[in-house]
Amino acid sequence: MTPILRICHLYPEMMNIYGDRGNIITLAQRCRWRGWDVEVSGISVGETIEPDYYDLYFMGGGQDREQMLVCEDLRSKKAQAIHQAVELKACFLTICGGYQLFGKYFITYTGEELPGIEVFDAWTVGGEKRFIGNVVAQAITTDGTTRTLVGFENHSGRTYLGPGSAPLARVKVGYGNNGEDGFEGCRYGNAFGTYLHGSLLPKNPWLADELILLALKRRYKLEELPPLDDTLELLAQRAAVRRSRMRRKR
Amino acid sequence: MKGKSALAIFVSKATGFLSRKLGTGAGTQLPGRIALRIDPQLARKLSGELEYGTVLITGTNGKTTTANILANILRISGYKPIHNRSGANLMHGVTTALSSSASLSGKLEGNIGIFEIDEATLPQAVVQLTPRLVVITNLFRDQLDRYGELESLAAKMNKGLREISQGDLLLNADDPLVATLGEGTSLNISYFGISDDRAGGGNLQHAADSKNCRSCGEPLAFHRVYYAHMGNYHCEYCGVSRPELTFSANMLEIKGIQETRLTMEGCGSPLRLTLKIPGFYNVYNALAAAGAACILRLDRDTIVKGIEEYSTVFGRAEWIEAEGRKIFLVLSKNPAGFNEVIRTISSDGKPDKVLLMALNDRVADGTDVSWIWDVDFENLVPHTGGIIATGIRAEDMALRMKYAGAPTHSIAIEKKFDRALKRALQAVPPGGVIYALTTYTATLELRKVMTRLGYVKGYWEE
Predict the structure, then answer these.
(1) Domain B317-461 of CATH type 3.30.360.10
(2) I want to staple B67 with a disulfide (CB 3.0 to 4.6 A). Which of B3, B116, B149, B380 is the partner?
(3) Which is nearest to B388 in space by CA: B346, B350, B343, B418?
(4) Could you give the CA distance from residue B125 to residue B97 in angstroms, rounded to a whole number?
(5) Residue ranges of the domains in chain A?
(6) For position B312, what pLDDT does the model report?
(7) Which 3-state string (H, E, C) describes B78-92?
(8) Is-contact A120 A195, C-beta < 8 A?
(9) What distance in Å separates residue B367's CA from the closest CA in chain A?
């Protein structure tokens, strides 16, 4: 049976800052190149989710105004279904604003509190200085393999993790979650959160494939994905690592 | 001018002269930077000497073209505009323009200032230059790593405009965010926009930015979309709608990358205008310039002539002859601008185009290259035969084109501009066209290579 990856893109018109759409493009293409089908559904304000239907959920970052509008809808219209999907081991990738709203709460720099939907044991506090620049991080893997993550961060929120969520990576260049503990992103089960734009997945093809595998193996007998030619992806990753050295010198 | 100002003017001129002689670059920023160190009030003092005052043009896209067209109309009308021509749009660039046309005693060669101003610099510029007219073209989320968010940028611009006690403000009514920038100011506001129901489309592009009502936050309903998030809109929830147009364009005829015609209303009887610059976005630029010229009470015939005679200078979009081939060089620096470029160059329907795509990530380009994933390159790939990716982030550009569907064997990475250009020239037969799509500093660097090879003159010589 030909696998089909069903992607739910949350708030595609509102949470779409900094090229996060590139992640959807990457997931879709990497399935198509393997001869598999892809179905991308945009789910917006007011719409409900069928938790069992989708294999992979994606939510990007937005500007403050959009993030406020989305915050309310996420809690009232989507939270319950999202929690069910998490328990059903669907895969999630949330970035920047999406990552923040999947935590417990976000207290903005001006003191407003945005409640999150508590998928992650994480909370965010707005800071004065914005963390902006190229990031290189080393993924924390269970099998001890070395995996590099490159991206671009642009956030003033500082995110802190509780014991219920594991950090995704250790920062080598840049600030990461909060600029203090050296961690970047988080993971709870098959749900991932990160501050990295870039877009994230094109230059980190191993992560794209890990997400696809996690998403599909619930329904299909898959142990690993057929390999693709990632020459160009790795060239771009290396170029991003080289470029990040400029930031380290500062 | 007294000692300090005279010294500042002298040093500024000397720096500009040396910079040109040594060929270190255009010398459009450094002289002003040094001059402002010596006399921080120099721009204020010199602009105060302008007989017909100052016009500021700001916005994400189109400010250079709008300023250039307006300056052209002014020149034909007999004015002597002082003008920061080459995209040097921070206070340094304005100061360079002023001091290079000033004598040591502070006497200016020109009598009206036409300055394009970086959006984030507007609040500072209005205080320093007390403009008689401010023109705002549009706001896109270009280079957010530099400006922060669009909302806060708009709030800062509005706050700056409230500082001016009198004068005119010309706003793009079709851009929902720009249309609100005059709120709470004491300025005399005019609006420009397109009112042609046959032009444009009914849907917003992916990269569209301002699509929610400024008053109530609900999604805006677009009766017509002309370019990116610009169009004729209203809010079904609170009733806010596009402001009534002072200057409107209708009866649009777009003829590929060669020519556009339109009828402008609002400046006396309708004016039929012909633009020699391509694309929908230039309709807005021409309309902004013509509206500004009308507010400045320039002669209607000179407006028609000034627009018709205008062909693009430096970088925004120009044709360059090289080795029997033609290079269509166009500055492509953010998703909305890029999508418009793609729409324009795809409109001839010809396949197998050779693209020279130059992506830099210097501060002036925006250090975050994520924005390339918001550009609809998927629409360009079917018209593409070969791609040469160049610039500091050539690999990112190449990767984007791979994911847009270009076969990897059709994509080459050549990080050096001279080699990339050579390769592009080899890929195109004599008489053919190379489409060079380049970010800001990449445009400068590529043009420098072409200057060295004798294909173009240095833009400071034009």
Answers:
(1) no
(2) B116
(3) B418
(4) 14
(5) 4-249
(6) 57
(7) CCCEEECCCCCCCHH
(8) no
(9) 7
Pick the CATH number of B46-308 from 3.10.20.70, 3.40.50.1010, 3.40.1190.10, 3.40.190.10: 3.40.1190.10
Give yes or no for a cis peptide into B100 (omega within 30° of 0).
no
* pLDDT tens, residue by residue, A183-232: 999 999 999 999 999 899 999 999 999 999 999 999 998 999 999 999 99
Look at residue B26 and tell me whether its pLDDT is greater than 70.
Answer: no
Active site residue A83: no
Instruction: Tell me the ipTM for this assembly.
Output: 0.96
CB of A140 within 8 Å of a chain B CB? The answer is: no
**B419 CA to chain A: closest CA distance, Å?**
19
Angle made by CA atoms B379, B380, B385, in degrees to the nearest 5: 140
Looking at residues B423-431, what average pLDDT do you find? 95
Burial group, residue B451, by CB count within 10 angstroms (0-12, 13-18, 19+): middle
Chain mean position to CA A241: 20
| Residue limits of CATH 3.90.190.20 in chain B | 317-461
In the stretch 88-127 of chain A, residues with CB closer than 8 A to chain B read: none
Q: Which of B206, B217, B368 sits opposite A152 (nearest CB)?
A: B368
Name which of B353, B362, B423 is nearest B146 in CA terms: B362
With contact defined as beta carbons under 8 Å apart, do B45 and B2 qualify?
A: no
Are residues B248 and B195 in contact, defined by beta-carbon separation less than 8 angstroms?
yes
| Beta pairing class for A148-161 and A122-139 | antiparallel
- DSSP for A184-243? EEEEETTEEEE--BS-TTTT-HHHHHHHHHHHHTTTS--SSPPP---HHHHHHHHHHHHH
Nearest to A174 by CA among A235, A108, A241: A241
Half-sphere exposure of A40 (CA within 13 A, CB side): 17
Nearest-neighbour CA in chain A from B152: distance (Å): 10
Average pLDDT score over residue span A70-78: 94
| DSSP annotation string for B160-217 | HHHT--S-EEEEETTSTTGGGTTTT--SEEEEEEE--TTSSBSS--TT----B-TTT-
Q: Rounded CA gap, B142 and B90, in Å?
A: 16
Q: What is the mean pLDDT of residues A67-90?
A: 94
Q: What fold characterizes domain A4-249?
A: Rossmann fold (3.40.50)
- CA end-to-end span of chain A, whole Å? 53
Catalytic residue (choose from A8, A31, A71, A96): A96
A96 is catalytic: yes
Among A16, A19, A236, whose Cβ lies nearest the Cβ of B395? Answer: A236
Sequence-separated (6 or more) residues with CB below 8 Å from residue B155: none
